[in-house]
Amino acid sequence: MRAPPWVVAILPPAIIFVVAALAFAYGPGLPPSLTGLKELGPYAIPAMAAGVAFWFNRGRAFLLAASLLLAYAAFRFALDHPASRFAPVAVYTAIVLFVPANAVVALLAPERGVSHHYNYRWLLVFLAEIVLVAWVASAGKSALSGG
Questions:
Q1: N or C: more exposed end of the chain, with fewer CB within 10 A?
Q2: CA distance 85 to 137
Q3: 27-47 burial: b if 16+ Cβ within 10 Å, else e
């Protein structure tokens, strides 16, 4: 008897996730020489994913990796330089809304590669999201932010 296609599609990532969770739970901690990975790892992984996607000319994967990288950088910036207690909450809320929305739009869009001439639109979308989040986060609790 053959397994359904959805089981075949879900099984490898599920196995990787379970093995990673077990390694995290029961494995040893990082040695002191690698403690910098806790700070730089969340930047390095999406940056490497964006680099691989750029190298293989995969536009949608590049956009998703860039979206994750920008989201994490914005959240760390909001946590490290809070103008008020509201700023990290506003940035987190924006990340929760924008990253999945970017993922859905990127996955629905046709694959055109990284260097396609219409990809400037994604840059404009990212810039608009950054400006909107910075504006709301810097406003604090106001009529603009619903506070």
A1: N
A2: 10
A3: eeeeeeeeeeeeeeebeeebe
State the pTM of this model. 0.72
| Band of pLDDT at residue 144, cut at 50, 70 and 90 | low
Half-sphere exposure of 82 (CA within 13 A, CB side): 12
Separation of alpha carbons 39 and 55, rounded Å = 25
Alpha-helical regions (H) of 1-147:
5-26, 37-55, 59-80, 86-108, 120-139
Q: Are 139 and 145 in contact (CB under 8 A)?
A: yes
Tell me which amino acid residue 58 is.
Answer: R
Closest CA to 125 of 63, 82, 79: 63
> Helix 120-139 to helix 86-108 angle, to the nearest 10 degrees?
160
